[in-house]
Amino acid sequence: MAYIKFKELTKYFDFKDEILEEDLPDYTKEYVENNEKILMGYKNSKDYVVFTDKKMILFDRDTLAVYYKKIHIIPYISISTSAINFKPGKVELLFSLDSGYQLHVNFIDMNHDKKENIKKVYKIMMKTKI
């Protein structure tokens, strides 16, 4: 009997800069359906995250290979448990997915207003799940 353990998505993402919808790269918008609304986008030096009203899309680019990227599409309905953690200057979103994967999305250098924006998106994510 073969046993395969696959938990690749257990990963930490750190995002710092909010990015407006019109400033998102075109390839990020390709994964947003016509009936979806982009709520917020964030970036760091190499990765992007886009929150729509139905799913979260993570663009995980490899720093060594410029053209290599993984794209994780996570419908909110597939989130089994979640938590939002507020720390000084930081917000952490912690997710357990139905598949058993764990995901941590961190936002750094956050002031009060930026934390409130993330809190609003988090509430939409959890309402979509119901």
Q: Unreliable runs, pLDDT <50, ≥5 residues?
A: none
Count the helices. How many? 2
Sheet bearing the most strands, described?
Answer: 5 strands, antiparallel
Radius of gyration: 15 Å
H/E element sequence: EEHEEEEEEEH
Which strand order does the major sheet show? 2-3-4-5-6
Q: What is the 3D form?
A: globular
| Helical residue percent band | 10-25%
Share in β-strands: 35-45%
- Helix-and-strand structural type: alpha+beta
End-to-end C-alpha gap: 39 Å
Topology, number of strands: 9
Average of pLDDT: 86
Walk me through this protein's architecture.
The structure is a single chain. By secondary structure, the chain is of the alpha+beta class. It is 17% helix and 44% strand. It is built from 2 helices and 9 strands, in the order ββαβββββββα. The strands form 2 sheets. A 5-stranded antiparallel sheet has the order 2-3-4-5-6, covered by helices on one side. Strands 1-9-8-7 form a 4-stranded mixed sheet, covered by helices on one side. Strand 7 and strand 8 form a beta hairpin.
Summarize the SSE layout with pairings:
Blueprint: E1 11-15, E2 17-19, H1 26-29, E3 38-43, E4 48-52, E5 55-61, E6 69-75, E7 79-87, E8 90-97, E9 102-108, H2 112-129
Parallel strand pairs: 1-9
Antiparallel strand pairs: 2-3, 3-4, 4-5, 5-6, 7-8, 8-9
Compact overview of the structure:
This protein is of the alpha+beta class.
Features of the shown structure:
130 residues, alpha+beta, four-stranded mixed β-sheet, globular
